[in-house]
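pasting for ref
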Amino acid sequence: MIDFLQLMYKPFIACMILVAIHVYLGMHVVRRGVIFVDLALAQVSALGATLGVIFGFEAASMQSYGMAVGFTILGAAVFTLTRSRKPVVPQEALIGLVYAVSASAAILVLSRAPEGGEELKEILVGSLLFVGWPEIAKVAVLYSVIAVAHYFARKKLFLISEHPQQAFDQGVHVRWWDFFFYATFGIVVRNAVQIAGVLMVFALLIAPAVCGVFLGKSIAGRLVIAWVAGVLTCVAGIFASYHWDLPTGAAIVCTFGVTILVCGALRAMLGVTGSVEGSH
């Protein structure tokens, strides 16, 4: 047990910080029906970072980080401008296209890098097991600032996510708030991917939120359920990773799959009704 605590307590703390904000953002993502937006923004950010490496910047340098954030803001602008009151095609189709193009471009760029394969592997699975206090402190401060900003904007953001047509009818500046959401969301994802990788970030955003929508009726109830599901799943995944000597991120992602099945079964047993999809 002592060995377990010594090895896993930093990944556990990092997971708790990630769960705290990703569950909230994931609730918006699920209700908006833009399920793959985090993957798309993560890939756009990764493309910026890999271009920084090609230009001669160190992977962990401020220049590379700045390029990644710049590409993330650009992606946020694209998703904001492609949102319309009466879309010709679902926005999810455009998000998927952005993901495919940016992922392919990143692969092309990495093919020119000496250690392109290792860079791609780190983007996918992260380095959660080796996270250090500087990374934990950085995301804790950054996420706290973003959380405060979202707290003051919560009414408009939830109105747009839950009842977009009503937001348009009330004259809410939907595009401005969409840009605020996607830009801050992208920055969160960018920093999370460095720690946990794309796959775990996706699972953290979507799986707890789906559990909350499965079992909760009010926004507050869904958030509480989602946070509890996220924390318990991360604990179980970390323990499984240590006990069976498995990659930590992958173990947590697979454990989230079990959590979804359990929550789905509970939904059926309890007779909970309501749509999981967002309102459009």
